[in-house]
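Example 3.2
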Amino acid sequence: MRESTRLPSSLATWAESVLGPLNCVRDTSHARDKSQVWRVTGPARDHYVKVAPEPTLHTRETCAYRVAVAHLGHANAPVVRDSSAGLLALLLTVDGGEPLKEEESPARRRVAHRQAGQLLHRFHDAMTGPLVQPEATGVVDNTVAGLDKHLAEAGDHLSATEADTLRRLVSALPGCGPLPAAWRHGDFRGRNLLWNGRRRALIDFERSEPGPLVTDFVELVTSLWPDHPELRTAQFEGYGRPLSEKEERALTAFAAADAASALAHGPLHGDPLLTARGRRTVECLMQEGRL
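Structure, written as tokens:
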């Protein structure tokens, strides 16, 4: 194997025990703290070595591959070649394509988002029923309970009137009643949807766990859909159903909580995109009352 200052020897030894001698190692981590992903080339096809930032995330992703990913169908997600709890690592096949957000053709983007909706529907169908309802209730309770902390951390990035509006919207979340719940992706966004011009694949399941299905649309409704409502339409065409009235109310509430979190963490970590997303959501909620 060629020398790599970024792939620890323990990971290299483990990967080579599965793949054989590695010819090339390339760091493909995201530009954020704690992301550790390498693309490695062995005697056969390329693979990814992915190390979770903490045990909980490794457990979630491993469980997602066991419980839900198989429902996506052939070539619609990576395949786990091996997993190491001790190293918090997964060895994954490489699926062709680039992040969906890179697609420039409006027509192909609509097709891709329709297909993405189909994938998400399959993922959500993997585990449903009463077993996941307690976890969904816990997500709602934690969202409401954590809001004041985020509002305080946001400080001057929110006016008193804006903070009161977010508090009012989020406090309505328990009143939406039991929400449809199942295994959710947890980070459903363009960078985790690969697209090769014809078909899509879903990746990155470390945030996956049972919860309200509607939470998988928060990232899209606060970033992509305001500028591209046609992609929202395409997404739900593929998903097979629109959101119910109570899910629409819950989506607004979760988006309000997400805005408070974004304005708490974005400035603190020097993330202008996260801060701008939170600011835009707040302004939309102040003007329209919903997303």
